[in-house]
Amino acid sequence: MSLAQGKLDELKKKLLYTFLLLVVYRMAAQVPVPGVNASAIQSYFSGTGAGGLFDLVNTFSGGAFKRFSVIALGIMPYITTSIIFSLMGEIFPQFQELQSDSEGQKKIQKWTRYATVVLCAVQGYGMAVMFESFKSSGGISVITEPGLLFRTTATITLVAGTMFLLWLGERITEWGLENGVSLIIFAGIAVALPSEIMTELTLYRSGERGGMDIVIFFLVIAATFYIVSFVETAFRGIPVQYAKKVVNNRVYGGNQTLPVRVDTGGVMPAILASSLLAAPATLASFVPETSALKPFFNMVQQSLYPGQLLFNLFYGLLIVYMTFFYAPIQFKTKKISESLQKNNAFIPGIRPGVKTKEFLDFVLFRLSFFGALFLVLVCTAPTIAIGSSTRFGGTSMLILVSVSIRVMMNVQSFMYADKYEASYKSRGKYSGNKKRF
């Protein structure tokens, strides 16, 4: 068997392994927590406006939340704890030292998992208490036997479900083509899109949607996907001059380019802004009906539904803040400037050291300003044009496009590495993992 055929078979195995693990994830999303009345919970969320508050959680969990599945919490608790530990690394010098070596990173990863278990337990218990208060349109309770036993069982089940998802993500990262956590979120969003399109077409056939509305729906989706794809693959190249040196009659160094993503913060500012904005509305749902403050909290909950003017205003402001807050964490200017100085490299016209850091901070500020405007436009414009009930929101599109691009780039990198390996072998200089010279 030729080398090229062997690499192609390896790529097929990676794709098949990733696909099978995602199938397992989707199967787990159909298994409800013990003690849940499936028909009653479906009736509750099919009620008018019943699910609007929980659309964000339901989207990231692949529809598991509205089924109260064993993986209803999704992978978001792990992402939240990971972000918290990343922020702690920016604040506390002890965490910075741990992040600088491999053993320290293993410790942080272990602490992150422990914190994920604690956070899942808190969220799982709160979710169990919340679902006990839900009733279908016919007055039937969503939970067949509410009480302490159900809350304990549901908490343990939800914690185990999230940790199982984390295990699946690690296996996909190890044997697949992309970060497993990203692919799990991607699959949860992508699986709901065909049903969304069929729903829109059904509404059109029944006369509830006009022809122009359907045209605008698909045009907005196509335009958003194009814009997101263009910006996500755009880079700002910073010229870097390396000192030239000769090794084995070959010259190394010279002019190179330091690529900086235009959308430096990525999709995380939008996710963080959505989570913070959903918190007040979520807390409002826990206020008893008999409370004197219930009308006020109901007004807050209605105002912060996706698509409302107040929601879009606060959503945009939070995205801008989170972009400027998260971008420096992704692009560490101090670390990059020190690395350039250590490798005898410099930016033409900029002195190494502090001046290089200041220049990189200036570039990052301008890119963050553009990235914040881009995220605000993408996350609010489709919702305004299409409607608040659609799953084709800006955050979902950002995740779909960014993960798809990374998978495509990983496949291309894999094939390019195969070509280089075959080229070296044909010249007699490279054979597998052994070198002749």
Features:
437 residues; mainly alpha; Preprotein translocase SecY subunit; 3-stranded antiparallel β-sheet; two-stranded antiparallel sheet; 16 helices; 67% helix
Verbal overview:
The chain is mainly α and 437 residues long. The chain has 2 domains: 1-191, SecY subunit domain (Preprotein translocase SecY subunit), CATH 1.10.3370; 207-392, Preprotein translocase SecY subunit (Orthogonal Bundle), CATH 1.10.3370. The protein is built from 16 helices and 5 strands. The protein has helices spanning 3-28, 38-45, 55-60, 76-91, 93-99, 102-132, 148-175, 180-190, 193-206, 211-232, 268-284, 294-303, 309-330, 333-342, 354-386, 394-426; strands at residues 235-247, 250-261, 345-346, 430-431, 434-435. A hairpin with a 2-residue loop joins strand 4 (430-431) and strand 5 (434-435). Helix 1 runs antiparallel to helix 7 (148-175) and helix 10 (211-232) packs antiparallel against helix 15.
The overall average pLDDT, rounded, is 78
Q: What's the CATH architecture of the largest domain? A: Orthogonal Bundle
Helix/strand/pairing category = mainly alpha
**Main CATH class of the largest domain:** Mainly Alpha
Please name the CATH topology of the largest domain. Preprotein translocase SecY subunit
Main beta-sheet strand count, sense and barrel state: 3 strands, antiparallel
Q: Can you tell me the overall shape?
A: globular
Number of strands: 5
Tally of individual domains: 2
Total of DSSP H or I helical runs spanning 4+ residues: 16
What share of the residues does DSSP label as strand, in percent? 5-15%
Order of H and E elements: HHHHHHHHHHEEHHHHEHHEE
CA gyration radius, whole angstroms: 25 Å
Spatial sequence of strands, sheet with the most strands: 2-1-3
